[in-house]
Amino acid sequence: MTNPVAIGIAGVGKIARDQHLPALAANHSFHLIAGASRNATVDGINNYPNVEAMLAAEPSLQAVSLCAPPQVRFAQASAALSAGKHVMLEKPPGASVAEIGALAELALQNQVTLFASWHSRYAPGVEAARAWLASREVKSVHVQWKEDVRRWHPNQEWIWQPGGLGVFDPGINALSIITRILPRTFFLKAAELLVPANRHNPIAANLDFTDAAGTPIRAEFDWRHGPEELWQIDVTTQDGGALRLSQGGKHLEIDGKTVDIGPEREYPNLYERFADLIANGTSDVDVRPLQHVADAMLLGEHKTVEAFVE
Ligand code: NAP
After folding, report:
1. Residues 53 and 87 in one domain
2. Is any ligand 1 atom within 6 A of the Cβ of residue 245?
3. Of the N and C termini of the chain, which has fewer Cβ atoms inside 10 Å?
4. The 242-246 sheet, strands edge to edge
5. Are residues 298 and 161 in the same domain?
């Protein structure tokens, strides 16, 4: 058996504590040795105020997992890649599409792995949905990704700031799934962005995509929904079939019947994938979900809605 990869984690906040730390603790391919966070520390490892200090003090580090908000992703990732470390990026992989190309170049130059992770793609229903759709003609797609922003992003100011994506922060999870399961490349035709009077980013968005066959693909993202979230994708096919991926990909129904898809293991699967990429000397960088968000910002018609107060 090979030695575990010495890994550091940066940006110890909600997702690092909820998912990354437990997934790393259970994965024997990695050994967590250091953390980089301005205010938080992780018990039992060496802690530093930022990524640069961690890289300077821990020469045995081989990989870094970046969990801070996207606005600081590029600076942290470029420091780690330039130091010869493998890098895993939380979603979204950056604050702009083009900066991710620059990171991919740095990874190649330094002969290390870059993994732009999309955790929702590792939900248990996604690969089964992809396999079922692969041999069918899609007739229509309807995405509803709706949740209560106060429940899922309490007091997170960064989501409202430039580069924070607003409602596209959860919506991009749906985009990461449909870019994986739909057999054809699709693209945005029109979008409506509903922006609170006192904020920079949309609180809701309605997107109309299509593909070369003219398939209608409608996505509705809304942060004013609750109390239960609705994270659902419905696909109909030309042969009369119907697929429903619900609960963010944890539940799959085909033609009204539940498909047995196994337990939820998104983050354990992400770290298994990262370990495989490192072992094989390859990278996995798919910017399409973020490209669709950028296109929505390009084409979207802005409508001002009621101010959002936390
Ligand atoms: P968060 O808790 O607000 O941020 C994570 C940590 O990043 C913060 O606790 C903070 O730690 C550090 N940080 C914040 N701003 C920073 C800055 N300007 N410079 C350096 N470090 C900074 O956010 P989160 O919910 O964990 O989300 C982080 C990323 O994970 C986002 O890209 C999000 O889309 C993704 N994600 C979140 C969830 C979720 O359920 N929340 C799920 C999946 C993916 P220090 O103050 O200690 O530096």
Report:
1. yes
2. no
3. N
4. 257-258, 251-254, 242-246, 230-237, 138-146, 217-222, 204-211, 186-196, 301-305
5. yes
